[in-house]
Each structure stands twice: as C-alpha cells, then as structure tokens.
Amino acid sequence: MSERIGVVIPSYKVRNHILEVIAAVGPEVERIYVVDDCCPDKSGDFVEAECRDSRVRVIRHEQNQGVGGAVLTGYRAAIAENMEVIVKVDGDGQMDPALIPHFVAPILAGEADYTKGNRFFDLEEIHAMPKARLIGNAGLSFLTKISSGYWDLFDPTNGYTAIHRDVASHLPFEKLSRRYFFETDMLFRLGTLRAVAVDIPMHAKYADEVSNLKITKVFSEFLRKNLANFFKRIFYNYYLRDMSLASFELPLGLLLLAFGVIYGAIHWSTAAEQGVFASSGTVMLAAMPIILGVQLVLAFIGFDVSSTPRRAIHSQLRRSALKKASTP
C-alpha cells in the first residue's frame, strides 16, 4: 500500500491503553498523530517518554476541546503533511488497529469518501455490547439517519473512521461540533458535500476502559441537534441547492396531515360534548387529508432514501483543486 496514511489518536484519560494501541498500528501507516487534549494524566508526555515509534508525533492542547476538537487538530496536521487518507482510532483499546486497511480500502478504490465502523453488523456479537449502550445507539442511529440523510448507515457514535484528505479539507472545521456530537455532526456535514459514506463491520472490545459518553445524559442534546440538522439539510438539499417533486411533497403532506388531525380533533371533541356522532361528511373531511398527507410524506421519505450519495467525490474535488491551481 503506497498511499500515505495517517492515524489520529485523541488522548484523554487513556494512559493505560494508548501504548498498546500505537504498537498495534501496522506498517501501512506512515504517521501517527497523538493529540493530548489537555489530559490530566499527561498522556502526551507519557507517550513521548515511553514510545519509540518514529512515526508518532505528539500534539498538545492547552485547553480541553473534546474528542471533536482533538480529531480536527489531527486532521489539520495530517492535511499539512499531505496524508492521503486520515484514520481516527480511539486510544482506549476498544478499536483494533489491524482493521485500518479495511477502513482505508474503499476510499483508495474510489468507492467511498468516508468510512466508519459498525458494531451492529454481526447480530451474533451484539450481546457483547452493554444493553443500555445498545438501546441508546439504536435510538441515536434513527435520529442520525433523519438528520444526515445517510439512511443505510448505523452506529453513528462509532469513532473508528477514515476520510480522504480532499474531503476533510472541505469540511467547515469552525462549525463542526467539538464534543460527543462530533461523529454525528460529521455525517451531516458530509451529507451537505454529497460525500459517500460507508459502514465497515467491526467488533468492539469491552474491558476495563471507561467510556466518557453516557447516552442517557446526552440523548436530549443529540435530539435537539439532530432536529436542527434535519431542518438545515432539508432546506439545503430541497430548496436552496435544488428543487424537485419531493420539495412540494413534504410541506403539502405535513399541511394536509396537520389539517386533518386538527379538524378531526375539534369536531370529535365537539361531538363528544354534545353526545352525538359526527356526520360521515365530517369524518371523511378529516380522514382524507390525513390519508393524503401520510402518502405524500411517505413519498418524500422514499425519495430521500433513494437520494443517498453513491458516487465518491474526492477525485472530483482534487481535479477541481488542480484546475483552480493551474488557472492563472
């Protein structure tokens, strides 16, 4: 594998595992960026003192920026050193670095711009995941499908990822969420670029590491931010960037659905107070908009699902950049 591959490892309270993670990174990787996110355990100093791998470069944050901030710092360093593909691996030992070639292969083959791990691929292994995390991830996955438009992806909080340099360089770094919402926000931003994202099957290892992500505590935040991203995506894709039949199906369907529900509820409550049955005409006037509204919303969802990006954009971005650079 001749392409230049860089690995970003955020380092925060992972001192007990990070040396093992670095040691497991294969020879296909040219550079390893360990980003000490103002770690209270001084993990950056620890790596520099104990690690003899010449590929390792330690980068330090003076203030904690969260996992997203650490990854973006690693992205910047990898882009500056002209790495072709940038892989992000956690330093807690849950992610097997031996899988790096599997994450990189679809990108180098021109089939994807971004790959991410999916711990739900093998149903026989799901029982290894803590039940609370399993249920939480299922809920977050559904929210992410709606907000990002990547209906065929699962396990949105999975941090084992790889991205092509040309796609990473087009991300709005200043707008990306810096903390636990980072991976989910990445999918939304990639969706606005029409980048191709692909799931890579993997198994997570759960041992004595401590997860800083408590899904029960962040679910409300994820719900709010996913809904905000959903409305942004709908506006960008269906009204600002392009318009199609689906641009009319969604608002018309929602209006009809709302009218049918409100009209039916008002007349049902009135009839109940008077102790009479609503007329067949009233029932039809409430039911028909609901039926039509549901059909239009389902038609929009069907169009949205079929619109998931299928053609990788990194080669196109590179050609555009080269053309721009050669233009006097």
Q: What can you see in these coordinates?
A:
This protein is α/β, with parallel strands linked by helices and 328 residues long. The protein has two domains: 5-238, Spore Coat Polysaccharide Biosynthesis Protein SpsA, Chain A, CATH 3.90.550.10; 243-326. The chain contains eleven helices and seven strands. Strands 3-2-1-4-6-5-7 form a seven-stranded mixed β-sheet, sandwiched between helices. Strand 2, helix 2 (43-50) and strand 3 (56-60) form a beta-alpha-beta unit. Helix 5 packs parallel to helix 8 (215-240) and helix 7 runs parallel beside helix 8 (215-240). It is elongated, with a radius of gyration of 24 Å. The two termini are 35 Å apart. The mean pLDDT is 89.
User: Structural class, judged by helices and strands?
Assistant: alpha/beta
And the CATH topology of the largest domain?
Spore Coat Polysaccharide Biosynthesis Protein SpsA, Chain A
For the record, the CATH class of the largest domain is Alpha Beta
Which superfamily, in CATH terms, is the homologous superfamily of the largest domain?
Answer: Spore Coat Polysaccharide Biosynthesis Protein SpsA, Chain A
Along the chain, the helix and strand elements come as: EHEHEHEHEHEHHEHHHH
The CATH architecture of the largest domain = Alpha-Beta Complex
Oligomer: single chain
Strand share of the residues? 5-15%
